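dude i think i finally got it to work??
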Amino acid sequence: MDTFSNAFAEAVALLISFDADFLEIVGLSLRVSLSAVAIACLIGFPLGAAVALYRFPGRGVVSLLLNTFMGLPPVVVGLIVFLLLSRSGPLGVLGLLFTPTAMIIAQAILVTPIVAALTRQIVEDLWREYGDHLRSLNAGPIDTLGTLIYDARFSLATVVLAGFGRAIAEVGAVMIVGGNIDHATRVMTTAIALETSKGNLATALGLGIVLLVIALSVNAAVQIVNSASARKAALA
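look at this
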């Protein structure tokens, strides 16, 4: 109990002191995860909406793959990205291995199926509700897609937050492709694992507190978005 109390007190002191190394780790974590989520949304939103709205050969297979890839093992993704970016890999010439870019790629691969699969379900539900009305207005594919995505903006905001929560908590893939290099690729999750193994519980606990605060903030944001969506539906 004394060990925990001392570690907690030191962790709080570390947070209050705004330690430069500590802030660097937190900042890199946010930059990597936000970048990965942005890429995942750019790919996942149109992909999920297209699968929901359009009929094409293999549509069922694509839907199945999206749902399956939502549970991709992070270490497997890390291994695949590592092999692609290693010196002997097809993208080794880019020199991206053990850089934040490699970590962003790994996280984007993990988050994109989540964004796409959830978007597909949201847009598909809206299409069932508004499809006849949009067809009666002779809305084209682009107009239809834009209308449904706009109407689903609150639900899609929740999808973004869910993707960010998945990305910021990732450790396995970023450990493999980033290498947990100090002042280069060390993020909160990998730093917590390292500092705990070294017995530096204060730093590990401090980073854990930041992760918990971020998780709480994400969940609070989801609740706010859902409340706003419910109020909008009640007024409609």
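The chain has a mean pLDDT of 85.
im so relieved honestly
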